[in-house]
Amino acid sequence: MSRAMPHTLTHPVLVGDVQIGGGASIPLQSMTSTDTHDAEKTLEQIRVLSVAGAQLIRVALPRASALCAFRKICENSPVPIIADVHFDYKLAIEAAKQGASALRINPGNIGSFKNVDAVIEAAQTAQIPIRIGVNEGSLAPKIEKNEHLSRTDKLVASACQFVEYFERLRFRDVVVSAKTHDVSSTLDVNRRLAQELPHVPLHIGVTEAGTLLPGTIKNVAALSPLLQEGIGDTIRISLTADPLEEVRVGKMLLHVLGLKNGGVEIVSCPTCGRTKIDLVRYAQEVENALADSPKDITVAVMGCVVNGPGEARHADIGIAGGDGCAALFEKGEIIKTIPEDEIVPELLRAIQRDF
Asked: How far apart are CA 40 and CA 33, in angstroms?
């Protein structure tokens, strides 16, 4: 039985001023790809991701030499920063002291539970939450060795064991993720976690999803059913690509599922023999120009009058191609005819003026 929508069964966890779970809207996450030692370059990327729609950003903390830069990043970031720490529990403790808004650790690779205890104590002192991140490469040792358990069983059992351990220490400000690289396992694991841990907010995503096109397909195939079932309190679209693409895909996914207001939705028709304008190029230009716009509108870029104001009547504004020209329409009503070399500029001007 999946949890009810909207995500009201999970308890709220605050990462800075961003709420995860407890009925809040679903925050979109990404991760910087810059060298954390370079604070200015990292902050520049964070600002770009924030403008595009990322509400939480994870920053890798690979070694102690990056702590000074990490502090500067936390102090100057426009969004809360989550410290991503593996293996070295002391780095997680220092990240909490240097201003992280949350910690991301995998208890399966952080060492002994004595080390985990020290991280929990640091998070309690700093009053920040911890994301328990479990994946196939770092499960709880005893569970990993159990040959009678399936991959899904191991991921779920590890996540549940760690949550229970944290709760025994009276630390409840946790978010859980259990990630795998394929669609079916992602669905199975998160549906199980929604049953086993209905009170704990879930961070969902597909790890090692691949490059832009296949990675997008994998993420959308896995996350769409979960989100429609009310499973998932925050998401990251992991891609082997510019992190900006992660944010754009994630924002679009939440928008088309009706889970996020704001952001332009582009609708465009497939090309056919009736098309007399360079529809593919114009649609791409419009998409690029409006990729990071906060406007909550639907824009249609249609190839001909057959697919123009009629089929796209639901769009707020759009164009329908003619022979060397296009009709500009709003709410299904034709406003004017535009010469082909002015199609995109005139459409963008009209969006800026009327919306």
From this structure: 13
